[in-house]
Amino acid sequence: MRLIPKEIESLWTLFTAPTIWALHFLVCYITAAIYCAKAGAAPFSFEAMRLALGTVTVAALAGIALSAFLAWRQWGFGSGDPPHDEPTRKDRMLFQGFATLLLSGLSFVAVLFVSVPLVFIGTCQP
Amino acid sequence: MSGCSGVQSALAPAGEEAVAIYRLLLLMVVGGTLIWLAVMGLLLHAARRRSARWTAQEAGRLILFGGVAFPVVVLLALLAYAVWLMPAIRPWFARQATKPEMIEVTGEQFWWRIRYPAGGGMPAFETANEMRLPVGERVTFSLEAADVIHSFWIPALGGKMDMIPGRTNTLSLLPTKTGVFRAPCAEFCGTAHALMAFSVIVMEPADYSAWRRAQTAGNRSGGSEGERLFAHHGCAGCHGIRGLTPPASLGPDLTFFGQRQTVGAGTLANTRENVTRFIRNPAAVKPGAKMPAFDMLPDEDIADIAEYLVALE
């Protein structure tokens, strides 16, 4: 059995990376906001929360990297140059693959930016 | 560039937080200028008449590095710097652990109520529209609003913080230079918003302690005609003078009024003529001021009260 299917034919692959980005954003901000609003009520420390969000970030980046790999494969590993604008099934596939690859890159950078405060913010501000 | 060195300028920082903000501004301006020059240089290069054509591959590489990699790295660095700087701009303190003594400032239309906490064996006291701070000591403010949203901002000492009715915001500042600074209300709050400011006088710690001691004691009676008229005409119904009148809290406290820089919360210089003008018709010099006009009083009485107030030192 293959770990990754040989071919994925769905528009959803296009949205995978931005969806991961959105979920990561929500998880980070909602967790930090609730933790700080209920200052002291949580049974774990700020450091533990930071570590957990760090793990979520690594998982999100891994998910986006996987999505990027699939897109790169769909794009034929860069074998043809854009624009893929012929009205053929092949060009549609390549175009979708290329667009997904670019979106994955954007999402990867965005997730990195969202997680910058995790590195620098060490406490809730009263 | 007189506007950059005055009493109300973030470009002439006199506090730790203001220095951090100033550095951030410098970095942004210099960095932004360099990037602008680089982009303009590229534009000129592209517009040159006899430039050699770039191949599609070269152009693609330029877009990848100049349009993707470079902005990503620069933005990441700027974001990291700004987030790293946050504790320097808004110092954090554990409110529960060591409850710092906070100076309570309340924004009111259109003046500032300032309550100093008890400390150093001296009781708490209230003043208005002017605050004194010791240089080199961290002060924490507890900020509230009585009516509408105001904003507390001492540009020379640090960033601003909103004052919201029903909420208490805290701000911590560390003045590093002595001097007199102006602090305007930084959120539109009504007709006289632009005429709502307070003075901040940063002094040597010894001078500050002496001032504090005197404030606690309050004014002493001089038995002047103005003092009698102040009570007789009902001024004391709204304005308190510690040591002389029963506490009143509707209007600004006037203890040691003569020491203050301004009359009408930063509206006019504190002179006898200006105090006279203000008493006669506050709305004429400060539109929207809540104090009613007292132009029905005899001119001599107004003059006597003004004389008395500016002599409260």
What is the overall silhouette of chain A? elongated
- Main pleated-sheet profile of chain B: 5 strands, mixed
Number of strands of chain A: 0
Range of strand content of chain A = under 5%
List the helices and strands of chain B in order.
Answer: HHEEEEEEEEEEHHEEHHH
Helical coverage of chain A, percent range: 55-70%
> Biggest β-sheet of chain A: count, sense, barrel?
none
Share of helix among residues of chain B? Answer: 25-40%
Shape of chain B: elongated
Tell me the number of helical segments of chain A per DSSP (H or I, 4 or more residues long).
4
User: How many helix segments of chain B?
Assistant: 7
Number of domains of chain A: 1
Protein name (chain A): Transmembrane protein
Transmembrane segments (chain A): 20-39, 51-73, 93-121
Keywords (chain A): Membrane, Transmembrane, Transmembrane helix
What secondary-structure arrangement, pairings included, does this model have?
The complex is a heterodimer of chains A (126) and B (313).
Chain A: H1 12-37, H2 46-74, H3 89-114, H4 116-120
Helix pairs in contact in A: 1-2, 1-3, 2-3
Chain B: H1 16-47, H2 56-89, E1 102-108, E2 111-116, E3 125-128, E4 130-134, E5 139-145, E6 150-152, E7 161-163, E8 169-173, E9 179-184, E10 197-203, H3 205-217, H4 225-232, E11 262-263, E12 268-269, H5 272-280, H6 282-285, H7 299-310
Parallel strand pairs in B: 1-5, 4-10
Antiparallel strand pairs in B: 1-2, 2-3, 5-8, 6-7, 9-10, 11-12
